[in-house]
Amino acid sequence: MWCPRPASLLWLLAAYIGACAAAEPGTIRTIPLRSHSLSAPYLDSDMQSRFFDFGGDTIIRADQYVRLTSDRQSQEGWLFSRLPLTATNWEIEIEFKIHGQGSLHGDGMAIWLTKQRAQIGPVFGSVDRFEGLGIFIDTYKNQRPGVVFPYVMAMVGNASVAYDKDHDGKENEIGGCSARGIRSASVPTKIRITYFTEKSLTVALQYKAENEWSDCFETGPVPLPSVAYLGFSAETGELSDNHDIISVETKNKYINKYSSDQAAAGAGGDSSGASGDDAIGKGEGRGGRQFRQEKEAGSWKWFFFKVVVFGAV
Fold first, then answer.
1. 137 Cβ partners below 8 Å, 6+ apart?
2. DSSP reduced 3-state for 125
3. What is the number of other CB atoms lying within 10 angstroms of the CB of residue 143?
4. Percent of the chain at pLDDT above 70?
5. Where are the beta strands (DSSP E) in the chain?
6. Is pTM beyond 0.70 here?
7. SS3 at position 8
8. Pick from 274, 275, 229, 218: which is nearest to 87 by CA?
9. How far is Cα 210 from Cα 207, in angstroms, rounded to an integer?
10. Residue 254 pairs with which residues in a beta bridge?
11. 147 with 155: CB under 8 angstroms?
């Protein structure tokens, strides 16, 4: 008769406990959104990107980066998603690099979630009086005393308010932080933006050490237009820098309201397809698919439980 080793039983028990914990109510889960993610080689066989458009002075080196501007004067470049980001709650993690020659440099780059897309303009290479969210990584200080640059800040536009460029967005800022060292950092530089509708917007940075995140700011609810495209842009003026996008990873986030057993029971009794999860991205399906995921999680829990009990006997 086969007798399982104690170590095997411990491993199975740990797996069972992990499966239970993952399905507990209140757990925040994520689903990768390929349509709003980007990584090398960036282009397909037709030298196009399936999900992103680019223009202006943007150039792409397929094995290294999407360069929004080169280290030359008077450049503007952009990269925008072809599809709007319809997820209700989401997280975007971007690896980027700002670098160049000389001791003076500028002007900076922006991350957008806006109704407008793919247009050249005066705000870090994109349009002013935009509708939606702009997050700016500003590397050149104009007139903002008492603030250390580079500076990261967010602004919400309503299609009528102009960006206060002369004062580096002081009048527009809803949250921000100084990020001295983010330019030409010795480690991969990243920004992570987490958004929960009607709840919060959070921004964190990695530039001091790898896998060490620094909180930049957190705000309350931030209104976004019903149709918002993910984009990136940069500009140079008399001063210049390379502004590179290395990778973009976007995830839909949702909160599990019920345990897997409750969700599976609900799937059997609710013909309407209503989900037991809160705030699932609109583009990811609100109906039976999530129930199937929960039901599968419950099946795995039961499988591990039977194996552990059988082994113990």
1. 96, 98, 108, 109, 110, 111, 150, 151, 152, 179, 182, 191
2. coil
3. 10
4. 73
5. 28-32, 52-56, 59-61, 65-69, 76-84, 89-99, 108-114, 131-138, 151-158, 173-178, 189-196, 200-209, 212-219, 229-235, 242-256, 277-278
6. yes
7. helix
8. 229
9. 7
10. 29
11. no
